[in-house]
Amino acid sequence: MTTAPAPVREPAWQLSRSAIGLWVTEGAISTVSLGLAAGAFLLFVPASAGGPVPLLRWLVPIGVVVHAVVALAIRPHIRFHVHRWEVTADAVYTLTGWLTRTWTLVPISRIQTVDVTRGVLQQLFGLSTVAVLTASSQGTVRIWHLEADVAQRVADDLAHRAEQVRDQAT
Question: What is the pLDDT along the chain (170 residues), one digit of tens a residue?
């Protein structure tokens, strides 16, 4: 009698709560950009133009408001609840995406390089991203928006364990 493989489960850990603030800031930046574009549209396209322009003069600002509500109030909180990660003795697990969910497993034995990066906005919120590079055609797996000290510890641990696995294989 064979035993069934363990069921795929969600990774155990959520991202830092500071990620919500980062996503709200990114949403605010995109909303301001769209608002400026909408303002330029309303300024440079005459209201008396024929065709669908009068309808667009209403739809464009409404679209910006809808984008603002989604980007500032809905998306950051949903993303926080669905993005997860975990490092076990055997693998790195990530679950990302709020519309399209992507579950990724990287065996420790496949890890070639581990990097920690901090973008400008991440630095403002004290966050970092751990990038786990493999020889796989899928490329790099990222654990986004961890607290900077946690990211450094995770990267150090993964690099150490990957080195141990490589040493055991030779």
Answer: 555 455 567 899 999 999 999 999 999 999 999 999 999 988 887 777 566 667 778 899 999 999 999 999 999 999 999 999 999 988 999 999 878 989 888 899 899 999 999 999 999 999 999 999 988 767 789 999 999 999 999 999 999 999 988 777 65
Q: Which CATH number fits domain 84-169: 2.40.50.140, 2.30.29.30, 3.40.50.1970, 3.40.50.2300?
A: 2.30.29.30
Beta strands in 24-90 (DSSP E): 84-87
Q: Which amino acid is at 154?
A: V
Residue whose tokens read 């464009």: 60
pTM confidence score: 0.85
Q: Which of 92, 103, 96 is nearest to 134 (CA)?
A: 92
Strand, coil or helix: 67 = helix
Contact status, residue 22 vs residue 118, Cβ threshold 8 Å: no
Residue 22 burial class via C-beta count within 10 angstroms: exposed 0-12, middle 13-18, buried 19 and up? buried
Closest Cα to residue 68, out of 19, 17, 33, 120?
33
| Cβ count within 10 A of residue 145 | 28
Token representation of residue 94: 């990530």
For 54, phi then psi, to 5°, come to -60, -40
